[in-house]
Amino acid sequence: MTWPIAVAVLIAAITHASWNALAHAIDDKLQAFTLVGLGGGIGGLALVLLAPLPHADAWPFLLGSVVIHVTYQTLLMKSFKLGDFSQMYPIARGTAPLVVTLLAAVFVGEVPNAWQTAGVVLASCGLAGVALWGLRGGGERPKWPALAAAVCTGLAIASYTVVDGVGVRDSGTALGYCGWLLLLQGWQIPLYTLHRERGAFLGWLRPVWVRGLAGGLLSLAAYGLVLWAQTKGDLAPISALRESSIIVGAVFGTVFFNERFGRSRLIGALVMVAGIGLMLHSG
């Protein structure tokens, strides 16, 4: 992995954790994800008008990804509703890298070299340390429904990562692919909310619309950077590096939501940094 790709993915990781924190800060998660969808859809429309149309070969992947993304957002919304941000976000994101590595090897033919494999495994161990810290101590029983929702969210992340990795390479335009993806999937939850709230729709959203729409635009920026990176490098190390957003998410949970960070999470973060170093060493 080259430094320009690494920097782009790290910026995407920070941006991604930021929009997730904005969504979590809104008490009503349906409000949050309705506005995130609207913000992403509006940004997607702008890209569609400016960027070339993706090649025909990319459309089956793009449409399949829309379905997976809507499933992902629904599961993420559920996990945020049931559990702490600093616990659910790391579990959801940390499930993905090893699954992506396996799927990319089987379906895309991207078998990582020794350095990449070591980096992905080490980074995943660090992610596990950050994620699993929230399941121990304090005398509290694990929130199993929240845990199940977060793990399923991670599997959805791995699925759309591989589908989009193939699709964006076939599209000929990362901007166009990103625009159509956000445009098509961004309106699903808002349409459901409009049907449910009807005449009260705008008034219901007004108190939190700035934070929600900002989250949607940040989600577009984050995923646009990842899609561009996937046209330049292998899927597995990009996925593992992207999940450094877990560290940012844990910090956000501590600073903004009064959720403990803890020594175990610090150790996990350092292990993940070592894994990132190995992936960069792999070139």
Automatic annotation (TrEMBL):
Gene3D superfamilies: 1.10.3730.20. The chain crosses the membrane at residues 6-26, 33-52, 58-76, 88-108, 114-135, 144-162, 174-194, 208-229, 235-257, 264-282. It comes from the Bacteria. Keywords: Membrane, Transmembrane, Transmembrane helix. The keyword NAD does not apply. Residues 6-130, 146-279 form the EamA domain. The keyword Plastid does not apply. Signal peptide: none annotated. Coiled coil: none annotated. Belongs to the EamA transporter family. This is EamA family transporter. It comes from Streptantibioticus silvisoli.
